[in-house]
Amino acid sequence: MGLTSGLFMGTVVGVALMFGWSYMMRYRSTKRISKAMDIKLLGSLDRNDLKKICGDNFPEWISFPAFEQAKWLNKQLSKLWPFVAEAATAVIKESVEPLLEDYRPPGITSLKFSKLSLGTVAPKIEGIRVQSLKEGQITMDIDFRWGGDPSIILAVQTALVASIPIQLKDLQVFTVVRAIFQLADEIPCISAVVAALLSEPEPRIDYTLKAVGGSLTAIPGISDMIDDTVNSIVTDTLRWPHRIVVPLGGIPVDTSELELKPQGKLTVTVVRANDLKNMEMIGKSDPYAVVYVRPLFKVKTKVIEDNLNPVWDQTFALIAEDKETQSLIIEVFDEDIGQDKRLGTAKLPLITLEAETVTEVDLRLLPSLDMLKIKDKKDRGTVTVKVFYHEFNKEEQVAALEEEKQILEARKKLKEAGVIGSTMDALDGAASLVGSGVGMVGTGIGAGVGLVGSGLGAVGSGLSKAGRFMGRSITGHSSSSKRNGSTTPGNDTPENGGSQPLQ
Amino acid sequence: MGFFSTILGFCGFGVGVSLGLVVGYYLFIYFQPDDVKDPVIRPLVEQDTETLQRLLPEIPIWVKNPDYDRVDWLNMFLRHMWPYLDKAICKTAKNIAKPIIAEQIPKYKIDSVEFEKLTLGTLPPTFQGMKVYVTDEKELIMEPSLKWAGNPNITVAVKAFALKATVQVVDLQVFASPRITLKPLVPSFPCFAKIFVSLMEKPHIDFGLKLVGADLMSIPGLYRFVQELIKDQVASMYLWPKTLEIPILDLTKAMRRPVGILHVKVLRAMKLKKKDLLGASDPYVKLKLTEDKLPSKKTTVKHRNLNPEWNEEFNFVIKEPESQALELHVYDWEQVGKHEKMGMNVIPLKELPPEEPKEMTLNLLKTMDPNNPVNDKLRGQLVVELTYKPFKEEEMPVGFEESNAVQKAPEGTPAGGGMLAVIVHEAQDVEGKHHTNPYVRILFRGEERKTKPVKKNRDPRWEEEFHFTLDEPPTNERMHIEVLSASSRIGLLHPKESLGYVDISLADVVSNKRINEKYHLIDSKNGRIQIELQWRTS
Predict the structure, then answer these.
(1) Is the ipTM value over 0.90, yes or no?
(2) I need a surface site. Which of A69, A125, B450, B470 has the fewest CB within 10 A?
């Protein structure tokens, strides 16, 4: 009796103990899990959530902008700035000087920094936005503003005049830097960083140029030349879709996916121009056209003398890297002794083109691609081009990439031999040998500074004159109008600086 | 009889309890799944008031305190990166653990220990606010509030004597507020040399530890005991003022400190060119290191001599022997007008053997461009003797870490006295009426010292150090510090003006040894100046 009841009681107690334990386990586990959920929920609050939690006591100091503020980062940055400035100086010199060399306009024999200090005012990060637009990638947009007091003196050496120091003053950089982090399975988990300046909103880079101990007017057009080169460097290396890919150490990774690659070939026939403006005192203009997608690869037509309705009928092949955002730029110049005059510029967004069909369009020439800068509404005539866009397949892409490399290499060699003043106008190499004086492509291209920050945050910036960023800003509007499938680009009105094709 | 049945009863109870435990174990615990499920999380707006009530104590600190910044972008970043981070960390952990396990196994007669499951779960750590402190020292201090309530599943299977036991860690939760200090700041990327991490409070740690499926942590009392144990353990290691130190940069390199001395002996020059109209040239040599801000050194002028003998010695402090070079310029001295260049040459320091004198005969060139045809002309030769002496390790100036601490006074200071060091760091919001080219004038015991002027700057940064050797502590004395501005042109129109001044009593410095503070300037609208004072005794 005693044994049985003992056994029974024992079993009951044992089972109860176990039950108690498991109950305790479940209780604690649910408690922990619910806490984990709470923490997760509170990790990303938005306005409505907070309103619900706080009710009427909603803290006034909290706001939820699209670009999240990072005051703490700015505090740290301003403290760290003197040290960053000193460290960055060397890096900038190293990375920008070769760039300057590449984009150096003809007529300038050497372009170097003679003094470079970034000043005492730290840049400000107005806001940060993090998105994941693609699996395995994190996109971080940094609203970056810098109204600094850097002291940058460029030693500009021209063929005609001895070295003149040119100072860049009152630099202001307002831009959104996009950094894309490619994730990987190994520590540090980021295999590559892609940096670029977002084209929307347009980067604004302002500065004033001042000659030290002299006047800029000593060399006509030098200010324009510098402005234009800065502009070319920024648009051609930093501005989306152009980008800088920095593979991070340790992880061997294929970054070719991230790199900008030739996407298609654009065959452009510059047919003719009509009703050009007369710029000459005696006789008529001697027009020629410069055509490019990237300022690094410019091509030129022959000069037709004394004609306001020239017929060129010349065909060129250009490479397009990003059909979505790139445009074909056509600039018409009047060849002149000294500096060539710009007769007008036209822009054809590539997105308006249909692949594999020949399109002939008339484009109205505008004084500048930047709508804000256009003061007069005078008619500058039109230019007619025939374009044919061919999308590359894999093999062609590789071949095109190879070719591009070769061209750049060849140019470098030519340049070393001192034949071409600059790589910029070298695609028709032979032609550019003619009088590489100061004003060959004239104001079309210039010299300048682009600045690539590096280090922890890949702080990128650049220098260029206000509003010098012509064109290439395809707004959401114009791209969407293409997606509507309009084959008559004449109906589209690109919001910003696009020339209107006439139908 | 009653006695016997009681005994039996007890025995039965004992057996029954064990039986019951086993039955209960199988009933309630064994058949429970031991994998960790992803919790289903409903958006906050759909939650009822009860849940909201539960949430209240966990409200992020940035909601409650305006001095904490929201860092949701960082959380977002972390959330997207977490799956990758999870894999990477687990892989690394496995790789580290493997050799250790392999080494330990034979000692305990265990067949194998392996990770059955190892994942950190789907929930990433979150930062619930970030606070930074601004001090006058050269350091960055930030205090993130870190909360990780994860759902990791770490299962270790131990096999011994043909039996298998599993230990599982689940639901790890760590809440901590570490203070991260980056210092010292240095002028090369990433701009700081060390990271110091320390905890401001004891961290909160909670987890479930399942041994063969049963959670030990839910035994009443045990959890608290273990938690306290871990907290104390962590606290004894990292609780402020104890810190974890992570070196990032080598300080010697980062600070560009001197690594050696270069002795230069300018011996003579031969066959110099005649530059003066009457008589021979009057040559002298200027020596300078590249990338050195110090003024160049000069030999004496040898009048009317085209083959001068100098035999003069100079010393240079070398910071980067790999990239620096010695520049030698020969000039023709003139009584009136500009001294004419007679030629130059450059010796890269990396070409020099350490510790042995090397005599070099250099051809004088017009420019350093090797291809320039102007260099073909003969300009004479210069003979110098160079000895590069790198510092030995023990001779190296003592570490930078102590620089914040007060250094010893140099030898030769009188007993009872010491050296007063004044470091003028920077000023803010100083403004003159007509010009703002601020420099600082220090007046102490009738002695006057000045910094260099900074041109056109309202927030100048000088970083200059001045020394005063004293016989006794300056307990009852004051130091007058004035910010002045002088016109950049000859100041006839606008003479130099004062931008503000401050008198600092030195008694505090003597008792504190070191004071680094911002002072408001008197007679200035908003100006402040940061001055560091040190009292160094022998």
Answers:
(1) no
(2) B450
